[in-house]
Target: Prophage Lp2 protein 53
Amino acid sequence: MPAGQYLLEVWIDDTQGNTAIYPDTSYPSVIGFSIKKNIMAATSTVITTLTLADFEAKFDDLQKDLQSKVTSGYFKGDKGDKGDKGDKGDKGDKGDDAVIKVVTQSQYDSLTDKSGVYFIKG
Model:
């Protein structure tokens, strides 16, 4: 590649057949890189190499990172507007009639099961 400024675009296909392209307009910054010199212009005898396998591994790592961010909700947008109020639900079943027992204090005191509603007269 000639010396210059470059931008990176990654396409990810999900299991539903959708394609996500990054970076998109919601991504915080564009992924850019520069090539300062073409390897053919190098004057030294030592040249650092980057194999195609190294290059592919870096892109695989980038793809995995982006896929992880896509599936984790990292790129989640702002909360949407509140929706319309839903329909009123059905009326519930009629409950049992309340039973209120009126007893004397001595009758109440002699009860072994005091569950329910009691009024003590007197």
In short: The CA atoms of residues 103 and 120 lie 5 Å apart. The chain is about 20% helix and 20% strand. Strands lie at 4-7, 10-13, 19-22, 32-35, 100-103, 117-120.
